[in-house]
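Q: How would the structure tokens look for this protein?
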Amino acid sequence: MQVKLASKRGFCFGVEDAIELAEHTVRENPGRVVALGPVIHNRQVVERLEQAGLNQSADLDTVPEGTTVLIRSHGAGPETFAQAAQRGVPLVDATCVLVKRAQTVVQQLHQEGYQVVMIGDAEHPEVKGVIGYAPNVIVVDREEDLDAVLPKRGKLGIVAQTTHAPEHVAEMIGAIARRPFRELRVVNTLCLEVIRRQEAAVALCKEVDVMFVLGGLHSANTRELARLCEQEGVATYHLETWEQFKPEMVKGRKVAGITAGASTPDFIINDFAEKLQAFDAEE
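A: Here is the predicted structure in token form.
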């Protein structure tokens, strides 16, 4: 079967840095490192780190004495750093630099007198961490929710979850701008690496008759890739590995496209591409 790969796919620099830092920390502190949740949203990488000795817990309260705590790539709120300092727990911060920037921007907007609004998924760990850097941050992700949560006047400072699609963020900003606010300030906190993967995936959709989006089922940026491909009208499958592939997915198809989220390692992409290329769809 003919297989085409998206020009931009897989690991971004933030994920690479987080994994490298996690591996280094485990080597330096064997058996004494705990991450506050999965370092990245990819099950296979998470399992590899656990096999290397990284305990991926999600509760600072239960961390035993003498343990180093790793802050995952999605970041954490300031209360986590304060609690660790109070208990004397050593921290290693693997927060993506772009998430760090979003945290700083939220803090600055509040200090300058803005009501901070974040466009994003309120349940995503990145968003949960970022909104901790200012009081009463409003999180919105659907236009129909705006009337219920936004104040009627005043100054709004707007940021977005780093992995969101720019088109969605633009639509939300437009919807907010139609309301009577004295001032709107928008700071672009989107990740350019994620945007490049989205653009490459959409471009590839025009060349294939089925798309495979590889990555963690809980990965926000991977789910967004799948949504954008589906929006292009091409048959799209979001899978983690080749084990989830089914022959009927390519029945009657001639050209398959492959892209992958920013948390998906090369070994998964390469394995899937090789096996799909060798697969005889007609047979």
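The chain has ten helices and twelve strands.

The mean pLDDT is 93.

Upvote if useful.
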